């Protein structure tokens, strides 16, 4: 079944003095049907976080440009991109005397397969016809508490330490990465990558409905608009990338290849 891709990346500065998020959807330079979406949420004071997030995008784009889909694995590309970005962000401390860090979530789309990876609390959501199929699990203190049974997922949503990360790119310790993939792709599937400035204001059912009922561009516009309203003047940077899979309608009664209609005189 032929599938088309409807994609859009968007962001808003929110109520912060600086935009420290970065988001991009990057097509492969040589391989048709291969593209990579990435969201990075920078941290580290004035300009430091923005530089860290920018490094994630720069490193990922460079690695994608050199990626050979037929010879190299998607997971290798994602892990290598995050690991290299971590090294470069960490090294930048000595040059600019800042303490830069960044989260990262990225997804590689190839014909018939999607692969994703993340570090920190920027998330990937996967929906089918508006129903949640799964999401990444944050590398955060509250998700750790949920995992060991200390608090419930509902309590995690309002926990005072929900933004405390246990790993990130650019920190002193080696970062933690988690990965996932699927070859079960159908029209009606949608993926959203986003920073915590987005997911903090939505439940999964509402997200799924917005992605199902709107084009990628319109969904981005509505999600940002609703997040801004709900932030009530104290909102974080907002960044998201939406990828929707659509069925391509094949025209019926198409003439056979090589058929040339003739008219009689």
Could you explain how this protein is built, in words?
The chain has 265 residues and is an alpha+beta fold. The protein has one domain (3-247): PPM-type phosphatase domain (Phosphatase 2c, domain 1, 4-Layer Sandwich). Helices cover 31% and strands 28% of the residues. The protein has seven helices and eleven strands. It has helices at 48-65, 74-96, 141-147, 153-157, 196-199, 204-213, 216-231; strands at residues 3-12, 21-27, 35-43, 101-102, 104-110, 113-119, 123-128, 131-135, 178-182, 189-194, 238-247. The strands form two sheets. Strands 2, 3, 4, 5, 6 and 9 form a six-stranded antiparallel sheet that branches. A five-stranded antiparallel sheet has the order 1-11-10-7-8. Strand 5 and strand 6 form a beta hairpin. It comes from Azonexus hydrophilus. It holds the Pfam family PP2C_2. This is Protein phosphatase 2C domain-containing protein. Residues 6-245 form the PPM-type phosphatase domain.
